[in-house]
Specification:
Layout lengths: L1 E4 L9 H15 L4 E6 L17 E6 L2 E6 L9 H20 L7 E6 L4 H11 L4 E5 L5 H5 L6 H17 L2 E4 L2 H8 L10 E3 L10
Parallel strand pairs: 1-2, 1-5, 2-4, 5-6, 6-7, 7-8
Antiparallel strand pairs: 3-4
Helix pairs in contact: 2-3
Length: 208
């Protein structure tokens, strides 16, 4: 039984949604039961798709388990403070719904970005007494700093502290490549660096 927290999932068209959908489909094909907690589709319009509006969350039954979609609180991309508050609202609501999972999961899996979703996954895992796996698609805050989106010494220091806090308390951290493994491992105590694993994203070469 796998409990997944992720920012996007099909039919949302965000790249992380496409990746997570493929991962979930393969896990289901291997016989695992999944509960996906994600956002209502919003990436294409940067607003909740019209057919998904009207409720703060929705549940869907699937042959392999279920999907819970919660409101993403989308805001103007250029307003960093508003985006941070929106992410906080989404992550809080996602954690609340994840904790409502009826049966205790065997593992909690969270996909970043956004980085704070790792805290939600960690809290849920600890309260449900399950191991926590943190999947890194982009290393934050490094990417945000290099892009000039995150600036100010206090904000950057706080983001790095949050990043290290989450890595250190994860039972495993998965990354996409060797260079990302080196980046993440360098932020961990030497005794914990072997919990960082490289699992490249795959592609269906028959379909794409």
């Amino acid at each position: 039984r796998i409990l997944v927290l992720c920012p996007h999932y099909a039919p949302d068209v965000a790249p992380t949604g496409t990746v997570m959908t493929a991962i979930a489909e393969q896990l289901a094909a291997q016989g695992h039961t999944l509960h996906i907690v994600t956002s209502l589709p919003w990436y294409r319009l940067h607003d909740v798709e019209p057919e998904w509006r009207g409720r703060p969350w929705r549940h869907e039954k699937k042959p392999w388990g279920r999907i819970t979609r919660v409101h993403p609180f989308p805001t103007d991309k250029a307003n960093i403070r508003a985006r941070a508050l929106g992410f906080a609202g989404f992550i809080g609501l996602a954690a609340f719904k994840a904790l409502g999972t009826r049966r205790r999961p065997d593992v909690v899996f969270a996909m970043s970005p956004p980085l704070p979703i790792g805290i939600a996954g960690l809290v849920v895992a600890r309260l449900r007494r399950a191991p926590f796996v943190f999947n890194i698609q982009d290393v934050f805050p490094d990417v945000a700093i290099e892009a000039g989106v995150l600036n100010g010494r206090r904000a950057i220091d706080a983001a790095f502290r949050l990043e290290r806090f989450t890595y250190e308390r994860s039972d495993a951290v998965t990354v996409l490549s060797d260079d990302l493994r080196d980046n993440v491992a360098a932020k961990l105590p030497a005794a914990q660096r072997d919990k960082v694993h490289v699992i490249p994203n795959f592609i269906d070469t028959g379909r794409v």
